[in-house]
Amino acid sequence: CFVFVLVCSSLLPSVEGSRSCPHQCLCYEQAELVDCRDRGFRHVPRSLPHGTWLLELGGNNLSVIGTRAFVGLWSLRVLVLTNNQIEELEPQVGTKNGKVEELLKQN
């Protein structure tokens, strides 16, 4: 995602695998962006920082996204799911908060 790369290019990530960041992801705490691209995830990682507003999950092996996958992410506005194997995206994914403004999904 061009916007993600542009914003993140000037930020330094927190320590990979820190307590507030899922193992194998990069968390840009100052901007509240989480980059979990191309990590081979089959499920949405747990322990995502609650302040996350952009979550990049592109290029993984996600196939089913349940309604509880993003519980507690009250600030989530942009969810990127491109280049996955998504077969099922439950109807209320991302809308439970009522705040997700952009859902990017393309297989």
What are the SSEs and their pairings?
Elements: H1 2-8, E1 26-28, E2 33-35, E3 54-56, E4 64-65, E5 78-80, E6 88-89, E7 102-104
Parallel strand pairs: 2-3, 3-5, 4-6, 5-7
Antiparallel strand pairs: 1-2
Protein name: LRRNT domain-containing protein
Signal peptide: 1-17
Keywords: Leucine-rich repeat, Repeat, Signal
Mean pLDDT: 80
Proportion of residues in β-strands? 15-25%
Shape: globular
Examine the coordinates and then state which fold CATH places here, giving the name of the CATH topology: Leucine-rich repeat, LRR (right-handed beta-alpha superhelix)
Low-confidence stretches: 5-12, 14-19
Tell me the major beta sheet: 5 strands, mixed
**What is the CATH class designation?**
Alpha Beta
- Helix/strand/pairing category: mainly beta
Q: Total strand count, please? A: 7
Question: What CATH architecture do you see?
Answer: Alpha-Beta Horseshoe
Number of domains: 1
Q: How much helix is in the residues?
A: under 10%
| Assembly status | single chain
Keywords: Leucine-rich repeat, Repeat, Signal
Organism: Amphiprion ocellaris
Signal peptide: 1-17
Protein name: LRRNT domain-containing protein
Describe the structure.
Strands 1-2-3-5-7 form a five-stranded mixed β-sheet, with no helix packed on it. The chain has one helix and seven strands, in the order H-E-E-E-E-E-E-E. The protein has a single domain (1-107), classed as Leucine-rich repeat, LRR (right-handed beta-alpha superhelix). The chain is mainly beta and 107 residues long. A hairpin with a 4-residue loop joins strand 1 and strand 2. It has one helix at residues 2-8; strands spanning 26-28, 33-35, 54-56, 64-65, 78-80, 88-89, 102-104.
